[in-house]
Amino acid sequence: MELLIIERQRSALLDARSTGRYDSCELEKVLDTLDAEQIMVESRTASVADDWSYFW
Prior knowledge:
By secondary structure, the chain is mainly alpha-helical. Helices cover 86% and strands 0% of the residues. It contains two helices and no strands. The chain has helices at 2-19, 24-53. Helix 1 packs antiparallel against helix 2. The protein is elongated, with a radius of gyration of 15 Å. It starts with a helix and ends with a helix.
């Protein structure tokens, strides 16, 4: 669910960038933060999957 939210946020930011409504440098900072959040979520998800692998 979190990854879906991140993807929708990324899409909205990219749309905003394409319209030129916001400063591209500021949007890049937000996109970098979103990338870091995605990595954190994916890492946490992989860690949980690894934990469950002990039971199988």
